[in-house]
Design a protein that fits this description.
With 307 residues, the protein is an alpha/beta fold. It has 11 helices and 9 strands. It has one domain: Glycerol-3-phosphate (1)-acyltransferase.
Amino acid sequence: MPKKRSKLQNQSELIAVRSLIGAIGALPLETSMRFGKALGKYIGSRFPKLQKTARRNLEIALPELSEAEKTRIVRGTFESLGRHLAFVSHFKRFQHQDFKNLIELVGREENFDPEYARGKGVLFFTGHFGSWEVYNLLAPAFGIGMNILVRRIDNVLVENYIETLRTRFGSVTLDKTKSARKMFRVLENGELLGMMADLNVQEKEGIFVDFFGTPASTTTSIAKLALKTGASVMPAFAVWDDAKGKYVIYLEPPIEYEKTGNAEEDIRKLTQSVTDVVEKFVRRYPEQWLWIHKRWNTRPKGEPELY
């Protein structure tokens, strides 16, 4: 149960969040993105514990890297977070006609359109990569309703403010702690659902699958939803492209899966396949992933802690 919060604490945090987002969002977008990148780099230098976690993750996942390469990736992680904040700060200023200049969709016609036409729903999965909030812009980009699974912020005032940014263009957010039936209905109705696939979960909430050669406790929700509804499971990753000056969303071919009658094994295989795609993108663009998260925190019984 979350700790009870005072009204003063909630209001103070809201003022801080609105002030930060308002100040960054008041700048032209290109300037905001540069400022956000610099801000992220500065914040990273002020939080050595987060840097330590990122370096430990790199030791686990990519032990072959030199110290210079690790430093570059850790710095890139914070710069990516700052750029992400700057982009979100402009949500309140974006207009529908701006989307073609703001984001680029790769793989819609060949990957998304045929799967959506099946009428069984499309379950997008992604990670804390590039700008994960960009998926709240997919509703107008697709011209189709988009449902996003989120963890509500403990501060209800901040949550309500962020909610207005996320849903401004028609996306619907679903509380991950209260929306099990709703998620099934969304897919059974042939709609779109977006979920995260890259966070550590408690052992009772997931299973261990291989991630960079080390068992990682991973949510089974994506696999269970797909196997129950027959929805398409489609990778969707937003990558910042410096040359284009925009986020490019890669919609990859759907993951193939089947129901064999062995539910436990079917869930494991699909969860591993999802995690393999996350790893592929992290390897391809390592500086844009959230290395500051303790991805391998939950360990199989009998194994030593990694942090």
